Amino acid sequence: MMPDRRRLRVSVFIRMALTIAFAVLAAGCITSVEPRSVPSGASPDPTATPAPIQFATGTPGTPNDEFAHDARLEWWYYSGHLRSESGREFGFHFVVFKALGGTGEPNLVAQLGLLDVETGEHLELYRARAGFTGDVDEDGPMTVDIDDWTYTVFATAGSHGFNAANDTEAGLSLQLESTTPAMLHNKIGWLPTETGATYYYSRPRQSAVGELTLGGETLKVTGTVWFDHQWGDFFVLGKPAGWQWFALHLDDGASLMITESRGIDGEVAETYGTYMSPSGEVRSLRQEADGIRLASEGEWTSPVTGATYPSGWALEIDSLGLDLTIVPVVSDQEVTLGLPASSAYWEGKASIGGSQNGEPVSGNAYVELSGYADPDPVPWLQR
Questions:
Q1: In the chain, fewer beta carbons within 10 Å around the N or the C end?
Q2: 3-state class of 101 per DSSP?
Q3: d(Cα 111, Cα 164) in Å, to the nearest integer?
Q4: For 46-78, how does the pLDDT look when each residue is reduced to its tens digit (9 = 90+)?
Q5: 187 found inside a domain
Q6: CA 223 to CA 349: how far, in whole Å?
Q7: 133-149: per-residue pLDDT in tens?
Q8: Which range marks the domain in which residue 303 is found?
Q9: Cβ-contact 268, 262 below 8 angstroms
Q10: Exposed, middle or buried: residue 85 (CB in 10 Å: 0-12, 13-18, 19+)?
Q11: H-helix or E-strand containing 45?
C-alpha cells in the first residue's frame, strides 16, 4: 500500500517566530552547492575547560542541565516507538527548539511527527512562540508553553512529559521516565566543531505512557523513547554541511548512537558514536579506532522539496562485532510543515536486522538526515 501522507495545518501564536527560530536550523547537503563560510563569532573552542554536565540530585540548589541554558541554540529531542493496547505500532518524534533572536530573547518552535506503521501515514504538526514563557523553578520543574502545547522537565532526573494533543485529528501526550543512565557523548558530553561547540547527552531509553490521537480516535499507548539534549553557541550551516544521525535500540537492551557529520565543504568530517551495553556501561566510539563503516544502500527523492536523501544503510562496527542493516519503515518521513523548503529534514522510524559476533540481532531505530535540501540565505542570529 502506498503511504498516504497528510500535513495537518495548525494555528500558531506568532508565525514570525517560526521563521526566526529556524533561520539557524536550516538543513541541506549536496556537494554541488558552494561551501558555507563560518559566521563571525563562531569558535570551535568557546571554553577551554567545559563545565561538567550535572543532573538533579534531589538536593535543593543543585544545578540541573536538563533545564534551559543561556545559549545561542538548544533543543530537547524525543524519538520513539509506541504500541497501542491492541498491538498497533506507531513511531513519533517531538522536539522543542530554542534559538536566540536578534534582541537576545529566545524563540521557541515545537514539532510533532507521527507515523502509523499499519497504514504508512505520516503526519506533522507544529507550534511556535516568540519568547520563553512558562514556569522555570531553580529546583524544577521546568514547564514551557509553546502556544497551546506544554513541555515539562520534572525535578527528578530523566523524568519528562509533554502535551501536544490539542488537535481533534492528531496529537500525542506522553509521560517519560528514564530506565537507563544518561549517555554523555564524546565521553564528557561536549563536542567541539568548526562552527562552535555543543554540549550533548542522551537518555537512550525512556519508558513512555500516554495517549495518541489519530483520525479523531484516541488510543492509550506505551513504548520506548530516545531523548537527546543539545545546547551551545554553535551554528547549523545547512547544505552542503549536515549529518546522518542514528539512534538504535537493540533487542538485547543495548543502545547505540552513530553520527556521520559533514563539514562546511560537504565532505565527511567525522563518524563517531556512543554505545551503552544492556547493563548500562557507556563506551565512546571513533571511526578508525573502532572500525565504523556506514554506507547508504538506496535513496529517496522528496516530491515536496526535491531533496534526495539516503534511504537504507549498512552499518558495521568492528569493535562491537556489529554488522547491521537499517531500513526505513516508510520512505516518506520528511519534516517540512511550517518550514521553508531549505530547512526540511528527514526524521524517520526504521527497522534493524543483522548480527553481532555472528549471532542474530534486531531492533528499532530512528534516523535523522540533515543537510539535503537546497539552502536559502541564512540571516545569522547574533547574541
A1: N
A2: coil
A3: 9
A4: 455 688 999 988 777 788 899 998 888 899 999
A5: yes
A6: 13
A7: 666 667 779 999 999 99
A8: 15-32+66-370
A9: yes
A10: exposed
A11: none
The DSSP-derived string for 209-259 is: EEEEEETTEEEEEEEEEEEEEEEES-----TT-EEEEEEEEETTS-EEEEE
**Residue 8 counted as domain residue:** no
Output the 3-class SS for 5-38.
CCCCCCCCCCHHHHHHHHHCCCCCCCCCCCCCCC
The grid coordinates listed for 43 are: 569558535
* 39: amino acid identity, one letter: P
Specify whether the CB–CB gap between 113 and 92 falls below 8 A.
yes
Q: Taking residues 204-217, report their average pLDDT.
A: 96
* Burial readout 226-242 (b: 16 or more C-beta within 10 A, e: otherwise): bbbbbbbbbbbbbbbbb
CATH code where residue 22 lies: 2.40.370.10
Summarize the confidence of residues 155-162 as an average pLDDT.
94
Torsional class of 319: left (φ above 0), alpha (ψ -120 to 50), beta (otherwise): alpha
Q: What is the share, in percent, of the chain residues with pLDDT greater than 90?
A: 60
Distance separating alpha carbons of residues 135 and 297, to the nearest angstrom: 46
Q: Report if residue 155 sits inside a domain.
A: yes
- Tell me the backbone φ, ψ of residue 145, rounded to 5 degrees: -100, 130
Q: Is residue 1 part of a domain?
A: no
pTM of the model as a whole: 0.87
Percent of the chain with pLDDT over 70: 80
